[in-house]
Design a protein that fits this description.
By secondary structure, the protein is mainly α. 46% of the residues lie in helices and 4% in strands. The protein has four helices and two strands. The chain has helices spanning 15-23, 35-44, 50-61, 74-84, and strands spanning 13-14, 89-90. A two-stranded parallel sheet has the order 1-2. Helix 2 (35-44) crosses helix 3 (50-61). The termini are far apart. This is EF-hand domain-containing protein. GO terms for molecular function: calcium ion binding. InterPro entries: EF-hand-dom_pair (IPR011992), EF_Hand_1_Ca_BS (IPR018247), EF_hand_dom (IPR002048). Keywords: Calcium.
Length: 92
């Protein structure tokens, strides 16, 4: 069953697992996640309204307004994923 539009067979993942999962969507290999890459990540995870959600996630996480989530902003994205997407991400 979906939890706030996101579902997966795994109950939770660690912060490191989340970062590794996210890296697979960095299609251009620049080390940053764009809105389109984030939308694809949410879509593959079974999310609903992925265009809207990826835009909201990017606005929340992208503190330097570069249009991308970089390594220094991943913690902001994790906070969004936990609070707004219902994902369970733990330190270990």
């Amino acid at each position: 069953m979906a939890i706030r539009g996101i579902h997966n067979s795994r109950d939770h993942m660690t912060v490191e697992e989340f970062k590794e999962w996210l890296k697979q969507f960095d299609t251009d290999g620049d080390g940053k996640i764009s809105r389109n890459e984030l939308r694809e990540a949410l879509r593959r995870r079974g999310g609903w309204f992925t265009t809207m959600r990826s835009g909201r996630a990017l606005r929340q996480a992208d503190k330097d307004n570069s249009g991308f989530v970089d390594e220094t902003e991943v913690e902001n994205l994790i906070a969004f994923a936990k609070k707004d997407l219902g994902m369970k991400i733990t330190a270990w």
